[in-house]
C-alpha cells in the first residue's frame, strides 16, 4: 500500500519526533517547574527567551542552530572535539531542531498543569515530612500527569511537522533527514508527482489525528484516576 | 494576662511571635503545656490560624522564636528557620487535604514513621476508618476525610499536633460524631495538642487549657476551668450561653430510664442522659450557667433530678445584664457557676461562704456535654 520511500519517511519522522520529545521532556519539566513554583531575578527574561522559537521564523532558528552547533560553532566545535559528535545534516540534528521548536509548547502546557496543582497539598506533604524533591515526585508531578501528556503530544506533533529549522540545520537527505514534510515538499517540487504528494498529505493528516486521539485518551484516563468521584 | 505556674514549668511549646499582615498585626507569646489539649480560641480574623501557621513553619514571623522542647524551630534573631518537613509537627488542616491520587491507605502511610507501623491497626480502628483503606479520597464524606487526615498526621509520630478547626463545615451529626472520635483520641495519645476553634461547646468538650486570642493579641491563657469562672471573660466564652464544667466518673447505667449515674470526686452523684462510655470512664459535663438553680435546702417534690451541696465562693453582678448576678460555687475542689436574677439572690439572702444546694435539671446536659 505504501512505497518504501513513504515508509522510510514515516519511520524517520516518528523516530525524529520521538527523539525530539525524549530529549526536551526532562529539561522542559524542570524549566516549567522553575517558572510555576519559583520567583527569581530574570524570570521574565527566561520566559521571553523560551517563547522565541514560537515567534521567530523557523529558518532563523535553523540558522542560529547551524551557527552554534555547526562544526565551527562555539558549541558544535566543543562537541566535535570532545565527543566526536557532529549534528548538522544528521537525523540527530533534525531531532535537535524539532526539539528546540517544540520546547516552548511543552513548557507552556506543563507549566499550566503544574500551576493547577493545589499548593495546599504540597504544604500538607511537607508537614508529613516530605522534602521538596519528594513533594515534587510524589505530589506535584503525578497530579500534573494529564498536562504532562498533553504537553508531550503537542511537542511531538510540533516536531513531526517541523520544516524550516530542519531543512536549514539538517538539510533534506533521503533516509537521513527527509521527514514527511520534507518528502512532501520534495514531491511538490518534482513535476508529475502530484498524486504521490497527495498520498503523503493524507498520511500526515492521519498521523496527526492519531496522535491527538491518543493524547485525549491518555489524558482522560489520567484524569479519571485523579478525579473526585461522586458517590 | 494571667498564666498558671504549672503551664510554664512543663511547657512543650514556647513561642513569641510578631508579624505584620497588612493592617493586621500579630504579637503573641504563648507556652503550651506538654500534655493535654490547648485550645486557641477566638473569633475568625483574630489571628489564631496565622499563629498556627507560624508555629508550623508555613509562614515566617517578622520577629520572635518558636521552641519545641529543647529544639529551636524558628529564631529570627539567629536567622534560623527549620523547614516544615523537619519540624516533626503533625498538622490537621481545616480542609482534609488528602492526596487525591493515593488511596486512604497510601495517604495514611505517606509520612508514617517506621516506629508507628505497629500502631497502624490500633489507630485505624480508633478512628473508625478500617473499611475505608482501599477507597480513593474523592469517595469519602467530609467527616471520613477528616478522620483520615487526623490518622495521617498522627502516624508521623509528631511531637506536637496542630489542628485548625477540624470540625468546620460538617453538619450537626457528623460534627458530633467526629468530636467524639477526637475526644477519644486525645485521651489515648500523650502528645500535646494545639486545637484552633471558635466554638465554645467544642472547646468545653475537648480542651484542658485555653489561649484566648483577640485582634492578634493573647488576652487570657490558662486552665480552661479557671477561665470559665472568670466574669471578665464571660462575653467571649459564650456570653448568654456561658458554661462551666464538672469532671466526673461514670458509675452506673440505668437502662430503663436511659440515664447514666456519675460521681464527682467529692462523692456527690448526678444523673445525666445516658453516656455511651464504659463504667469508670472520666467524663466532662458542661453545665450552662443558666441551667443551675439554687436552694437553701434540698427541695422535695420537684422535677430537678440533681441537687449538689456547694458553698458560695463569690457573688458578682453579671457583666451583661443588670437583672442577674453570677454565683461562683465550690464543690470539693471543683467549681460551678450559676446565674440568678438579682431579685432571687436578694430574697434568698445569699452570701459568700454560705452552703446551698445547686439544682441542675438532668435534661440540661445535652450531647455536647460529653
UniProtKB/TrEMBL annotation, chain A:
InterPro entries: MetI-like, MetI-like_sf, ModB_ABC. Residues 10-214 form the ABC transmembrane type-1 domain. It comes from the Bacteria. CDD domains: TM_PBP2. It is a multi-pass membrane protein. Keywords: Cell inner membrane, Cell membrane, Membrane, Molybdenum, Transmembrane, Transmembrane helix, Transport. The chain crosses the membrane at residues 12-36, 48-69, 89-114, 135-157, 196-219. It is found in: Cell inner membrane; Cell membrane. Pfam families: BPD_transp_1. The keyword Kinase does not apply. Its main location: membrane. Part of the binding-protein-dependent transport system for molybdenum; probably responsible for the translocation of the substrate across the membrane. Belongs to the binding-protein-dependent transport system permease family. CysTW subfamily. NCBIfam families: modB_ABC, PRK09421.1. This is Molybdenum transport system permease. It comes from Salinicola rhizosphaerae. The gene is modB.
UniProtKB/TrEMBL annotation, chain B:
GO terms for molecular function: ATP binding. Keywords: ATP-binding, Cell inner membrane, Cell membrane, Membrane, Molybdenum, Nucleotide-binding, Translocase, Transport. Pfam families: ABC_tran, TOBE. Residues 3-240 form the ABC transporter domain. InterPro entries: AAA+_ATPase (IPR003593), ABC_transporter-like_ATP-bd (IPR003439), ABC_transporter-like_CS (IPR017871), Mo/tungstate-bd_C_term_dom (IPR008995), ModC_ABC_ATP-bd (IPR011868), Molybdenum_import_ModC (IPR050334), Mop_domain (IPR004606), P-loop_NTPase (IPR027417). Residues 301-369 form the Mop domain. It comes from the Bacteria. Signal peptide: none annotated. SUPFAM superfamilies: MOP-like (SSF50331), P-loop containing nucleoside triphosphate hydrolases (SSF52540). This is Molybdenum import ATP-binding protein ModC. It comes from Salinicola rhizosphaerae.
Amino acid at each position: 500500500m505504501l512505497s518504501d520511500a513513504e515508509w522510510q519517511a514515516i519511520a524517520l519522522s516518528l523516530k525524529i519526533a520521538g527523539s525530539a520529545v525524549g530529549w526536551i521532556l526532562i529539561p522542559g519539566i524542570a524549566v516549567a517547574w522553575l517558572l510555576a513554583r519559583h520567583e527569581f531575578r530574570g524570570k521574565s527574561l527566561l520566559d521571553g527567551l523560551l517563547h522565541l522559537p514560537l515567534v521567530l521564523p523557523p529558518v532563523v532558528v535553523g540558522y542560529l542552530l547551524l551557527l552554534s552547533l555547526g562544526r565551527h560553532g562555539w558549541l558544535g566545535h566543543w562537541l566535535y572535539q570532545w565527543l566526536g559528535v557532529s549534528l548538522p545534516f544528521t537525523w540527530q540534528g533534525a531531532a535537535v531542531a524539532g526539539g528546540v521548536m517544540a520546547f516552548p509548547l511543552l513548557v507552556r502546557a506543563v507549566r499550566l498543569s503544574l500551576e493547577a496543582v493545589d499548593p495546599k497539598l504540597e504544604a500538607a506533604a511537607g508537614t508529613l515530612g516530605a522534602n521538596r524533591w519528594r513533594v515534587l515526585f510524589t505530589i506535584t508531578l503525578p497530579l500534573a500527569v494529564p498536562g504532562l501528556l498533553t504537553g508531550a503530544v503537542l511537542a511531538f506533533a510540533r516536531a513531526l511537522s517541523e520544516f524550516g529549522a530542519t531543512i536549514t540545520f539538517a538539510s533534506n537527505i533521503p533516509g537521513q533527514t527527509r521527514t514527511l514534510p520534507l518528502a512532501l515538499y520534495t514531491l511538490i517540487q518534482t513535476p508529475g508527482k502530484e498524486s504521490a504528494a497527495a498520498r503523503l498529505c493524507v498520511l500526515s493528516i492521519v498521523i496527526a489525528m492519531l496522535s491527538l486521539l491518543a493524547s485525549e485518551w491518555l489524558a482522560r484516563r489520567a484524569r479519571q484516576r485523579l478525579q473526585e468521584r461522586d458517590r | 494576662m494571667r498564666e498558671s505556674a504549672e503551664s510554664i514549668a512543663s511547657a512543650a511549646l514556647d513561642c513569641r511571635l510578631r508579624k505584620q499582615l497588612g493592617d493586621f498585626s500579630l504579637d503573641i507569646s504563648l507556652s503550651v503545656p506538654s500534655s493535654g489539649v490547648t485550645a486557641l480560641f477566638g473569633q475568625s480574623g483574630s489571628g489564631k490560624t496565622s499563629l498556627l501557621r507560624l508555629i508550623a513553619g508555613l509562614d515566617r514571623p517578622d520577629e520572635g522564636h518558636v521552641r519545641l522542647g529543647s529544639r529551636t524551630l524558628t529564631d529570627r534573631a539567629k536567622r534560623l528557620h527549620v523547614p516544615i518537613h523537619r519540624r516533626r509537627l503533625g498538622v490537621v488542616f481545616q480542609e482534609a487535604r488528602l492526596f487525591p491520587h493515593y488511596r486512604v491507605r497510601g495517604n495514611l502511610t505517606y509520612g508514617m514513621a517506621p516506629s508507628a507501623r505497629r500502631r497502624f491497626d490500633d489507630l485505624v480502628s480508633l478512628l473508625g476508618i478500617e473499611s475505608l483503606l482501599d477507597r480513593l479520597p474523592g469517595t469519602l464524606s467530609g467527616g471520613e476525610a477528616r478522620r483520615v487526615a487526623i490518622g495521617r498526621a498522627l502516624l508521623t509520630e509528631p511531637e506536637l499536633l496542630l489542628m485548625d478547626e477540624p470540625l468546620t463545615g460538617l453538619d450537626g451529626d457528623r460534627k458530633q460524631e467526629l468530636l467524639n472520635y477526637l475526644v477519644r483520641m486525645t485521651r489515648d495519645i500523650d502528645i500535646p495538642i494545639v486545637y484552633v476553634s471558635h466554638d465554645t461547646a467544642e472547646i468545653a468538650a475537648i480542651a484542658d487549657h485555653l489561649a484566648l486570642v483577640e485582634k492578634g493579641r493573647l488576652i487570657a491563657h490558662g486552665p480552661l476551668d479557671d477561665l470559665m469562672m472568670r466574669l471578665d471573660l464571660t462575653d467571649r466564652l459564650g456570653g448568654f450561653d456561658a458554661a462551666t464544667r464538672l469532671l466526673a466518673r461514670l458509675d452506673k447505667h440505668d437502662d430503663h430510664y436511659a440515664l447514666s449515674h456519675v460521681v464527682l470526686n467529692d462523692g456527690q452523684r448526678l444523673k445525666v442522659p445516658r453516656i455511651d462510655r464504659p463504667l469508670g470512664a472520666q467524663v466532662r459535663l458542661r453545665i450552662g450557667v443558666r441551667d443551675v438553680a439554687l436552694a437553701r435546702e434540698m427541695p422535695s417534690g420537684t422535677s430537678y433530678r440533681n441537687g449538689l451541696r456547694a458553698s458560695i465562693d463569690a457573688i458578682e453582678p453579671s457583666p451583661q445584664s443588670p437583672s442577674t448576678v453570677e454565683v461562683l460555687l465550690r464543690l470539693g475542689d471543683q467549681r460551678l457557676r450559676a446565674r440568678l436574677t438579682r431579685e432571687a439572690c436578694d430574697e434568698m439572702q445569699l452570701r459568700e461562704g454560705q452552703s446551698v444546694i445547686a439544682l441542675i435539671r438532668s435534661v440540661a446536659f445535652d450531647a455536647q456535654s460529653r
